[in-house]
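Components:
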Amino acid sequence: MTDHRRFPTQEIGSLPKFSWRVKPFRSIAIQDSDIASARDWGKRLGVKEAGALVKLLKKRSGFTGRERQRIVDYSMLYALGMQETAGSGTRDGRGIDIVWSGEQARTEMYETPVSNIGGFEFIGKVRAFDNKYWREASIRKRPEFLNNYHLDEFRFVRRHTRRGVKVPITDAITIMAWSDHFHYSRKWAGADLPPSRRNFEARREFTLDLARVIRRVIQGLVSGGAKDIQIDIPAATQYQTVDDAKLVAESFNETTKGVDARFSVHSCFPPRLGYALLFPYILDMKNCSRFSFEYANRDSFGRGTTSASRPGYADLALFKEYGYEGELGLGVVHVHTDKLPSAATVRDRILYAEKATGLGPEKIFPTPDCGLRTRGPEIAYSMLGLVVDGARAARESLR
Amino acid sequence: MVIGSARTLLALTGIHPRSEKTAQATQDWERQRINDRALREQFDDDVGALIRLQESLGFDFVSDGLLTTEWQDLLTPLVEGVKGVKKGPLVRWFNTNTFYYVPVVDGPLSVDGGKLAKRLTNSSIRSSSKAVLVDPLTFAECSEDRHYGSREKLIFAYCDCVVAPLARGLEKAGVGCLQFSAPSLVARFRGERWRDTELSPVSEGLRSALKGSRIRSAYHTFFGDAEPYFSFLLDSLPTDDIGFDLTETNAARISSSGKGIVAGVADARSSFVEEPRQLLARLGDLQGKTKELTLAPSCDLRYIPRIVADQKLRNLARARRALS
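Structure:
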């Protein structure tokens, strides 16, 4: 029997969308290969509803709104199936412990909230890196709550899994950082302040206005039964002043104020300086039980549990330096490459983290570095499997 | 165009945003919905439209906007085109939501200047063109050095082994201007200041690399306030022009100089399209402090959507007309 209290595994959020999930929303006809993919993956993941999905997809085109919603629902079942069956070994040892919908019900982590918060206007695509883009929106007036854009997704997942459920929610800092600040820039343009201070005050006001809207979304989720909320702050390291690092914590505290839930934070892809620019300020986040960061992107693919063999994990020393005693989500698989590490390398990353932080195996949660939406299904499934197998191997090493 | 005492020019300063059609084409290409040729044709159309826009607006140095898949960011052409450099991890590019792969320097730098020049230029430009390269300090700061052992040695190596042959290659290719993009000078972690001794290799290295070269050179700072480095920029650097991000630097504080000034008056980080009078307000009295003034975006326009970026170019041209 595998003791999953040690090195419990978690997903960060997104998983790739199958072609049959995407095409009906772009008015592209379903092909035989899409149907074959739905059938084959359904069988592989043990999705009982795969037959009904295949039957629906045979319509090929002209799906109604209701049918498209069914396709999204099936897609969430496939995502849960991927997480629950990932890895090798016995049925008991397989699968990720804390799961989510693979964000199949979202366009992506920015566009979905921004489409559902009042005050934004989309202005066009902006490129993040390589051929990856986001559709940027401009804030034209004070943001306002329109509806709870994650509640149905949560209810669906809760009904269809017995595993732990963690709801990832894009935070205010990230929405602010990825948006054009039009309304706030204009509001602060006349302030008698140096340009850098004026810009900071504009983004602080924007962030805190957003935080209040997002708090309402979280309150709705908690009322609906959600207990575990992950505040996604990939942009935590975008603005790199001390004031901005403090604002990351202030925004988190404003977002979670008065809400009775278990909160964690995810961030990733900092500048070359790493996460040091957030310390010690993020430790002022009240009520944050776990920090889940990306590390494997910067690590070697070789084996070993010394600091020399694990260069990507150098920032773990920060947690020890500042006396952190909470939990740590540990990115153990680099998500922007198809190159896979070995399970032994993943195991060594976990064992090194345990040693470097001194936190103990119950407080270290192996995870992919970030959401897996940019990978193909085969690679994403393999990566989830490596998280599971690496964690199991690490548990066995500690026996 | 000569306005008052200063000749006023127009130029871009870096990577231009891809059009919505080109963005879609790159995604279709990644999903194998279109082939290499269709992608290349879409990029060619996009570059053509941008060149025509600049020429119609009277830009003095015309750029292809670095609209190719080779220019995913300012460092990728070096990772792919310089020996001794390999691709490292993905990290954030300064205070933006854009990312680059760290150049890992694991051997002596060397480059075929002609080949790299070809990567940095576009043969379809008929008028005077401009090439862009990260400056030695930014290259050193953004790289992981496993070979040279000190920032100073890496800076000199970059100047001698990359900048010098490239400048010769660009000159041979008929390129009118080489701009060094230099965010690292002014956008340092938590505002830490560079010491003079840390900066002197940059000016020395560039002086040596550009010696004998007739190509016009510019050193463009952005993402931060350049005021602490006015002396270094205006007195020590050998480049013909010095560029400032005037959304961060107070133009009124810039002193007179014999150098040309690239005035980054159009905010490349905001979708708000400034009217000419707003652009000129950022300019302050710079016109009287230089013989040659280039109106430009504050930095690469890739941080805003294409439609907004193109409108900013039109308003730069209107601002120049308003100056007259």
